[in-house]
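Progress note, sequence design subtask.
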C-alpha cells in the first residue's frame, strides 16, 4: 500500500493529479491543461490535446472545448507521464464524471493496459442537458466486444487480463459546434457516499 501511495504522490507531482486523503482516489480536476495528455502520436507535444475540437481551455477548474465534428476525444494525463506506472483496475473501478452540456449526448471511453491493448466500454454514458454527475462501476461494464488486438484477444472486463490500466481516453458525441465542460473525472475505490 505504501508503494501505491508513493506512486500516486509522484503522479500528483508530475501530472497535476490530486489524491484524496480519506479514499484511494485519483482526480483530474482540470485546473490546468496538464490534466489532458498530449496527442498519442506526438507524446512530447504540449498537453491539452482534444481531437476534433477548438477553443480548448481550462477555466475556473473546468476543461472546456467546442466540437468541430460530432466526435471528439482526449486522453487523461496519468500513466503515460510516469513510465511503468499503471493503475490496479480492481482497486480503481468507480468512475465519476461531473460534466455540462447544452443538449443530450453521450460519452464513451477506452482504456489501455500495460501490454498495449486498448478496449472500449461497450455501453455509452448517456448524458443529459446541464451540469450533472455520472458514476459508473467499471467492474459492472463489459469492454472490447468491438475492438480486438492483432492476436485476436477480446477483453471483456475493466483492466483486461492484467487487471491494470495505464491510459484512459474520453470520447464525446455531440453535434458539431457544441461546447462542453468537464469539472472533474475521478477514479476511486469507493462509491459516492460509501465509507
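Output:
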Amino acid at each position: 500500500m505504501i508503494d501505491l501511495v508513493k506512486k500516486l504522490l509522484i503522479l500528483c507531482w508530475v501530472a497535476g493529479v490530486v489524491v484524496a486523503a480519506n479514499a484511494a482516489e485519483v482526480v483530474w480536476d482540470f485546473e490546468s491543461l496538464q490534466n489532458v495528455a498530449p496527442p498519442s502520436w506526438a507524446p512530447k507535444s504540449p498537453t491539452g490535446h482534444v481531437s476534433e475540437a477548438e477553443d480548448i481551455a481550462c477555466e475556473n477548474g473546468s476543461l472546456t472545448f467546442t466540437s468541430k465534428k460530432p466526435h471528439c476525444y482526449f486522453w487523461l494525463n496519468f500513466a503515460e507521464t510516469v513510465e511503468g506506472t499503471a493503475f490496479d483496475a480492481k482497486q480503481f473501478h468507480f468512475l465519476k464524471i461531473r460534466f455540462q452540456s447544452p443538449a443530450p449526448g453521450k460519452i464513451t471511453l477506452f482504456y489501455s493496459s500495460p501490454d498495449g491493448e486498448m478496449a472500449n466500454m461497450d455501453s455509452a454514458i448517456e448524458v443529459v442537458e446541464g451540469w450533472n454527475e455520472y458514476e459508473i462501476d467499471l467492474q459492472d461494464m463489459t469492454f472490447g466486444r468491438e475492438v480486438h488486438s492483432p492476436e485476436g484477444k477480446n477483453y471483456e472486463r475493466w483492466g483486461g487480463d492484467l487487471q491494470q490500466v495505464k491510459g484512459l481516453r474520453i470520447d464525446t458525441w455531440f453535434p458539431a459546434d457544441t461546447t462542453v465542460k468537464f469539472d472533474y473525472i475521478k477514479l476511486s475505490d469507493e462509491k459516492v457516499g460509501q465509507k
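Residues 2-188 form a domain with the Jelly Rolls fold (CATH 2.60.120.430). Work on this subtask will continue into the next period as scheduled.
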